[in-house]
């Protein structure tokens, strides 16, 4: 659960006066974005995430190798993902939220007529059956005939599970399409773990600063320039070490995770390099998380707190740099 580092960075940003108007996230980042959109503060999330047993999110797979092979072959994933989805649903329900219609924003000029409704939250997933990126729920409006779903009625917790369905680790979410086909929806990190394009401001919102938080391999001493492996959808060496003793499907998982890491790094490096070409600029807080992988659910209390502190330290360096430039939060481009 590397996204715990996001909470530390968000806490510092909130201490500097930031409040969040629109949010986007991929994989575990989608979970944090959804809870912030629901009204939880970073301090509340720190308390919640520090008290749970993350091993519950890796439930649903038998210990013996034969059953693991069977799950991979017939379920396409070792773990169901049901616990993660229910956990998010309960937290959202406590704030009176269920579907994306509860997070719909007022229309801005003619934008809604041209591009469809806008929401406080966007989560990124990937439809591997149709080989396309999904920005949820917006793409359900743009491709309503293709998926047959009302974007306002899409369950938020279900969308977060789609975004967090790490291939082979979690069973993919399936959608029955009106054309009779079946779409397999998996982790948005397959395409991008750093979904800046989902939040590019409209003309009416151009005055709002856009902050990106991305996770990178490295330590406190490393300076990220977007060239490291970033995002929440990809496995790292720590993940692969835990799979080394399993049979062939484990090698397949490790290989697939390495491919995901490569794809994610290349795409997000391109995104970071293109920032200066976008209308306005985007500020990015890079958070090094060492070698803790996306599928580490056996974190100790000290590792959980270390991730939180890594996020805080990265954000504090960022805001110290702003102060040295003479920038206040409200003056961010």
From TrEMBL:
Keyword set includes ATP-binding: no
Residues of the PNPLA domain: 1-200
Matching SUPFAM superfamilies: FabD/lysophospholipase-like
Residue positions of motif GXSXG: 25-29
Residues annotated as the enzyme's active site: 27, 187
Any one GO molecular-function label of the UniProt entry: hydrolase activity
Keywords, sorted A to Z: Hydrolase, Lipid degradation, Lipid metabolism, Membrane, Transmembrane, Transmembrane helix
Transmembrane helix recorded as keyword: yes
Name of one Pfam family that matches: Patatin
Superkingdom per UniProt: Bacteria
Ranges annotated as spanning the membrane: 23-43
Protein name, as recorded: PNPLA domain-containing protein
Taxonomic lineage: Bacteria, Bacillati, Chloroflexota, Ktedonobacteria, Thermogemmatisporales
Name of the gene encoding the protein in the UniProt record: yqhO
């Amino acid at each position: 659960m590397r996204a715990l580092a996001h909470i530390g960075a968000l806490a510092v940003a909130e201490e500097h006066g930031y409040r969040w108007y629109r949010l986007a996230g991929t994989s575990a980042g989608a979970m944090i974005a959804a809870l912030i959109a629901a009204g939880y503060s970073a301090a509340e999330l720190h308390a919640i995430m520090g008290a749970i047993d993350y091993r519950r999110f890796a439930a649903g797979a038998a210990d013996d190798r034969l059953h693991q092979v069977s799950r991979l072959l017939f379920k396409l994933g070792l773990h169901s993902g049901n616990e993660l989805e229910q956990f998010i649903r309960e937290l959202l329900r406590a704030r009176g939220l269920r579907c994306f219609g509860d997070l719909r924003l007022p229309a801005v000029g003619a934008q809604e007529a041209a591009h469809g409704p806008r929401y406080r939250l966007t989560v990124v997933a990937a439809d591997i059956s149709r080989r396309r990126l999904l920005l949820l729920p917006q793409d359900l409006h743009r491709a309503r005939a293709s998926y047959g779903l009302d974007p306002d009625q899409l369950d938020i917790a279900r969308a977060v599970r789609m975004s967090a369905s790490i291939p082979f680790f979690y069973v993919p979410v399936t959608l029955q399409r009106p054309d009779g086909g079946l779409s397999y929806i998996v982790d948005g990190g397959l395409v991008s773990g750093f979904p800046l394009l989902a939040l590019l401001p409209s003309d009416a919102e151009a005055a709002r600063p856009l902050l990106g938080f991305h996770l990178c391999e490295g330590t406190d001493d490393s300076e990220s320039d977007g060239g490291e492996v970033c995002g929440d959808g990809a496995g790292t060496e720590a993940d692969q070490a835990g799979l080394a003793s399993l049979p062939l499907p484990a090698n397949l998982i490790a290989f697939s995770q390495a491919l995901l890491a490569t794809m994610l790094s290349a795409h997000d490096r391109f995104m970071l390099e293109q920032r200066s070409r976008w209308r306005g600029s985007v500020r990015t807080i890079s958070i090094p998380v060492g070698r803790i992988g996306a599928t580490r659910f056996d974190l100790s209390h000290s590792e959980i707190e270390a991730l939180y502190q890594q996020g805080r330290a990265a954000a504090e360096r960022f805001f110290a740099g702003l102060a040295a430039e003479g920038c206040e939060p409200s003056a961010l481009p």
